[in-house]
């Protein structure tokens, strides 16, 4: 599950950089549920889930929440722009130009409707 790897990598980078408090948002309700509520002993991602839970413990504060994709257009745009970068992990020191307008909208509280089928 890609979302679990994203959570693991984000936590690893933050911990290695000495971050004392992190708030992770993911659009995967399954990932949040598995990490918060536990997982069956036969789950295929058991080693990765155990590593995530191990990283979350310790002397730092980790908040993990679910966020609908529509509520996090910045992360969605970054994910879609990943094909513009070479393969690998990239740590950005400043936001890419293509997401600046989305960041401004996020800070000012612009809401995007969620489309659902009835």
Description of the molecule:
Helices cover 44% and strands 10% of the residues. It is built from five helices and two strands, in the order αβααβαα. It has helices at 2-16, 29-37, 46-56, 73-80, 100-108, and strands at 21-26, 61-66. The chain has a two-stranded parallel sheet. Helix 1 packs parallel to helix 3. The mean pLDDT is 89.
In percent, how helical is the residue content?
A: 40-55%
Radius of gyration: 16 Å
Average of the residue pLDDT scores: 89
Number of helices: 5
Structural class of the helix and strand makeup? mainly alpha
Strand runs, count: 2
Concise summary:
With 118 residues, this protein is mainly alpha-helical.
Summarize this structure as a short list of keywords or feature phrases.
5 helices, globular, mainly alpha, 118 residues, two-stranded parallel sheet, 44% helix
Q: Any chance you could write out the topology, listing elements then pairs?
A:
Elements: H1 2-16, E1 21-26, H2 29-37, H3 46-56, E2 61-66, H4 73-80, H5 100-108
Parallel strand pairs: 1-2
